[in-house]
Amino acid sequence: MSHSEKYTPNPDRYNNSEGFQHCGKSGLKLPRLSLGLWHNFGDVDDKEEAVKMLKHAFDNGITHFDLANNYGTPFGSAEKNFGKTLKENFAPYRDELIISTKAGHDMWPGPYGDGGSRKYLIASLEQSLKRMKLDYVDVFYSHRYDPNTPIEETMGALSHMVKQGKALYVGISKYPEDKAREAYRILKENGTPCLIFQGRYSIFSREIEQEVLPLAKENGVGFIGFSPLAQGLLSDKYLNGIPENSRAAHSYGFLQANQITTEVVSRIIKLNDIALQRSQTLAQMALAWCFHQPDVNSVIIGTSSVKQLQDNINALKNLSFTDEELWRIGELG
Q1: Which position among 180, 295, 323, 333 has the lowest Cβ density within 10 Å, counted as fewest Cβ atoms?
Q2: Position 126 in a domain
Q3: Are 332 and 267 in contact (CB under 8 A)?
Q4: CATH number for the domain harbouring residue 42
Q5: pLDDT tens digits along 230-285
């Protein structure tokens, strides 16, 4: 598609049989798969492929794009690039999209560019809106709990954003269970209930099943999982060692080569065998598995190509598991 051609979305984009899930007890529905812009949408990445992925996602009923202030290399570039694509391609469809962003991690120099203070969170949202050329975001998250800021201050800032109309909903990410409980209470008292909790969830990371999910359900809060493929471990990428261009091949980043032990590879191979018996790739099975928990409303996928994105979307074709499959997968998790 040349730059002069106008983007026209697929008219059948909402015909996905799995459809949308209500987020907790709210009226907002989320697609099963949400596209995360943590990697592959920064200034250092292939811009053409990034635009193609955003269009392909929307063409296939993925209406939720998940960002944060510091996504992309350099910080802020994922939001800036997304804003440009939004203006050029998605402007007529803004009301069909859920756009979320976050603040909580290191973003700019000095004492006010990190944490959970009112100063930082409100300044960060203003910057995010400018980068994306938006009047409001659909969801704004406190990206992590800050023990150095009273939780009332952090939640008060989130409530303020909703009351100002700069965020329609608010959420929290990676909060410990006791702090999440406090956050839910304070937000409810402020008249701006918490919409959603974002946490790590995959076959290899199941901690949220113990406390986070039951607490969210009890409070009518939705749940969205990130890293459902455990940074790519739950794919066929590492079945035969560490490929040159993979995340684990780099000295930077969250997945390091020393995490890919022979014991981990052995578990990946066994999981891959179960996936093949289900006529799925390991990545597809790992994504589908997340939904065996009915309180998981959506999972965030991170992809580097349209081909990989489509492979992920195909996971939705088979979401059912037998008890035996769940038991075998659980043993390998």
Answers
A1: 323
A2: yes
A3: yes
A4: 3.20.20.100
A5: 988 999 888 876 666 655 555 545 555 566 788 888 999 999 999 999 999 999 99
